[in-house]
Design brief:
The chain is α/β, with parallel strands linked by helices. The protein has five domains: about 200 residues, P-loop containing nucleotide triphosphate hydrolases (Rossmann fold, 3-Layer(aba) Sandwich); about 190 residues, Rossmann fold (3-Layer(aba) Sandwich), CATH 3.40.50.300; about 100 residues, Winged helix-like DNA-binding domain superfamily/Winged helix DNA-binding domain (Arc Repressor Mutant, subunit A); about 90 residues, HRDC domain (DNA polymerase, domain 1, Orthogonal Bundle), CATH 1.10.150.80; about 100 residues, Arc Repressor Mutant, subunit A, CATH 1.10.10.1390. It contains 35 helices and 17 strands. The protein has a seven-stranded parallel beta sheet with strand order 3-4-2-5-6-1-7, sandwiched between helices. A six-stranded parallel beta sheet has the order 8-13-12-9-11-10, with helices on both faces. Strand 3, helix 5 and strand 4 form a beta-alpha-beta unit. The longest helix has 22 residues. The chain starts with 8 loop residues before the first helix and ends with a helix.
Length: about 725
């Protein structure tokens, strides 16, 4: 179809896509493509990049080749194009997911002139049979989507993208439109140079997304905060990004057990599962997708209301692109990232095996991310500056603008750090420098005689953590750098040497604490929410326990131990499901003894009009579950306990801790086979009878005192106590 003089672009837009007007630069870009010019488009996520090549493909003669990096993205875009047309043949994709019959259908539709848009993966484009096929058709133009993949400085560099231009030259030259949502001036130049389109018309849209709220939070209790946030925003769509596949699976599972409709998405899953999970998110069968960066490139879901980063991304480009998936319809979009410097250190360590040039690039990109996270400057202003755009004033829609942090003069402390690095001959890492300044005589400090340096202890009014923070801010300011070959050694940069000679005002940010807490620990212990024990309820629960113990003819501690009752008097569980969140209570215990306890608590809560701290309770997918399963399975196979301990690198006492936790939560296990090997039958019976008839509580010390330490060991008591608790309580 050609664009007649009497048909305006707006009419074509209305006819095919139902829109009455263009957004931003769209019309100018489309006219440039229709004129046969090379075109470079820098347009933030949500700006309408796809239309810039979709509409020209319907007007120009031939088939437009769209080079796209993700199968999921292609499927999504092809489905969207087909929804605007009566003929499914109007758009196709050609990639490794197709079977032979499907490939034949695609090629037939293209040859017959039905197909205006053909999406191709860069890997498919390089196959000789595809090159031979594409040589037979008239190519209207080439569209290189997600063009930042060309640059090593881009956040998603792909070597196969470097081969696009030579392949285009083989197939046959036609105009090129390169599109990306994120590109620094450096990346833009790389794209244009590699695609041989330095003379292209460039269309840049502003990176400012006024509807997006940006916030960085400490990673402490991140999982609990995420669950609370989602529950407070029930029904809203959100994406949670993690860097590892393991963490994606773990977070998705934790959300699910807390009653949140969530699914994982990462490259380690088979293509069918990924596609199904993506479709469920798009169709709103689930509210949350937990994903690695594999998810979301070009996914056209306009009403994503929040994007969370459980792990801070490797680059600001990646961060900007991922946050850009929120609020694409112009509505609410919350962008919350959880930050711990420990995560940055992990990312730096992952780089160590890579080529030096790649490490250098990765290190620079990470520094930008750290600078952004720790800075107290308006966040959109920082982002726009990174992409070469200037923003005046403050956004008043980020954490730094809404809650300004105090700053203090840090000139002298920066100089102290620089002098210390110089004094230790630039051969040590940050912790060592911080120890010298704090006056801490660590073993390495003494070994290298650094406690005799004049500068030793010059900053003793601050701790090591403080000086590590100053080092990080000196790194961000490029006063110092970390050596690549001998990873982590601090080196003075020319800017730092100049600062030492002529110090000037340098503001350090106050109250920007990011606790070095692994959230893994929080997940495991999430049910132990802090709070004061309700003594009245605790005593009522003890009375109930005593009553049931007499009825069941078992000691009270077999039913629930005191720590479990205390937790109940903090959390007020009013259902068997809630009860399973209580310390030391598993499914078995809850089912066997729980009903009377939760009924009593429910009545107590109603009568006293107590507001339960349910937002504090987070059901956990305990990270130790793999170990527990291994222990249970090994005991079922009657493996000796010392072999089980050795296999997992545990002391016998640690293994007994794990077995006790399993039994106390309500799981029945049988270790008679092991006890019979290590203990005489009469000894077993004597300890068992003690717990059944005499013991006031489960104390090992009390049992040893009563039975005699000369005759029994602590291990003997614990083994029989496990047997007793399992048989009598479970």
């Amino acid at each position: 179809m050609s664009l007649g003089a009497d048909i305006s672009l707006t009419e074509v837009l209305k006819r095919h896509f139902g829109f009455t007007s263009f957004k931003g630069n769209q019309e100018l870009i489309i006219r440039n493509v229709l004129a046969g010019n090379d075109t470079f488009v820098l347009m933030p996520t949500g700006g309408g990049k796809s239309l810039c090549y979709q509409l020209p493909s319907l007007i120009l003669e031939g088939t437009a080749i769209v080079i796209s990096p993700l199968i999921a993205l292609m499927k999504n875009q092809v489905d969207a194009m087909r929804s605007f047309s009566e003929d499914d043949g109007i758009a196709h994709f050609l990639n490794s997911s197709l079977v032979k019959s499907q490939i034949h259908q695609v090629k037939t539709d293209v040859i017959d002139g039905k197909t205006r848009l053909l999406y191709v993966a860069p890997e498919s484009l390089t196959k000789e049979e595809n090159i031979a096929f594409l040589k037979q058709i008239k190519v209207s133009f080439y569209a290189v989507d997600e063009a930042h993949c060309i640059s090593e400085w881009g956040h998603d560099f792909r070597p196969e993208y470097r081969r696009i231009r030579p392949i285009i030259n083989k197939i046959g030259k036609a105009p090129i439109i390169a599109l990306t949502a994120t590109a620094t001036p450096k990346v833009q130049h790389d794209i244009q140079k590699n695609l041989e389109m330095l003379d292209a018309s460039v269309f840049k849209s502003s990176f400012r997304r006024e509807n997006l709220y940006y916030e960085i939070r400490s990673k402490k209790n991140a999982t609990k905060e995420i669950i609370r946030y989602i529950k407070n925003n029930s029904g809203k769509s959100g994406i949670i990004y993690c860097l590892s596949r393991r963490k994606v699976e773990e977070i998705a599972e934790t959300l699910k057990v807390n009653g949140i409709k969530a699914l994982p998405y990462h490259a380690g899953m088979d293509a069918g599962t990924r596609a199904t999970n993506q479709d469920k998110f798009l169709m709103e069968d689930v509210d949350i997708i937990v994903a690695t960066i594999a998810f979301g490139m070009g996914i056209d879901k306009p009403d994503v209301r929040f994007v969370m980063h459980y792990d801070i991304p490797k680059s600001l480009e990646g961060y900007y692109q991922e946050t850009g998936r929120a609020g694409r319809d112009g509505g609410e979009g919350k962008c919350i990232a959880y930050y711990s410097y420990k995560d940055i250190q992990k990312l730096e360590k992952f780089m160590q095996g890579k080529p030096v040039a790649e490490q250098e690039i990765g290190r620079q990109l990470l520094l930008e991310t750290v600078s952004y996270a720790e800075s107290s400057v308006c966040r959109p202003k920082q982002l726009l500056n990174y992409f070469g755009e200037e923003m005046t004033g403050r956004c008043e829609n980020c954490d730094n603008c809404l809650h300004p942090k105090k700053q203090f003069e840090g000139k002298d402390d920066i100089v102290l750090v620089l002098k210390t690095i110089q004094e230790v001959k630039e051969k040590f890492k940050a912790d060592h420098v911080a120890s010298v300044l704090s006056g801490i005589k660590t073993q390495p400090v003494k070994a290298y005689q650094h406690h005799h340096l004049e500068i030793f202890g010059k900053g003793k009014e601050h701790d090591v953590k403080y000086w590590n923070a100053v080092v990080r801010q000196a790194l961000i300011a490029r006063f110092i750098s970390k050596e690549i070959e001998n990873y982590g050694l601090l080196k003075l940069e020319s800017r730092g040497l100049e600062f030492m000679k002529n110090p000037y005002s340098f503001m350090l940010t106050e109250d920007n604490e990011y606790p070095e807490t692994d959230d893994d620990d929080i997940i495991v212990n999430a049910q132990g929410a802090s709070g004061a024990v309700d003594e009245e309820l605790f005593n009522i629960l003890k009375d109930l326990r005593k009553k049931i113990s007499k009825l069941k003819q078992v000691p009270p501690f077999v039913i629930f131990q005191d720590p479990s009752l205390e937790d109940m008097a903090i959390q007020y569980p009013t259902s068997l499901e809630d009860l399973q969140n209580i310390s030391g209570v598993g499914v078995g215990k809850a089912k066997r003894y729980g009903k009377e306890f939760v009924d009593l608590i429910r009545k107590y809560v109603d009568e006293k009009e107590i507001e339960r701290p349910q937002d504090m309770i987070v059901k956990s997918v305990v990270n130790k579950s793999g170990l527990k399963v291994y222990i249970i399975q090994s005991i079922d196979r009657k493996l000796p306990l010392d072999d089980i301990a050795n296999a997992k690198g545990l002391e016998m006492g640690q293994l007994l801790d794990e077995i006790e936790a399993i039994v106390n939560s309500g799981t029945k296990i049988n270790i008679d086979y092991y006890i019979n090997q290590v203990m005489e039958e009469d000894h077993q019976q004597e300890i068992f009878d003690y717990f059944r008839e005499e013991a006031e509580d489960e104390s090992v010390e009390a049992a040893l005192e009563e039975l005699g330490e000369d005759d029994y060991s602590e291990e003997d008591i614990r083994l029989i106590r496990i047997k007793f608790m399992s048989e009598m309580g479970n």
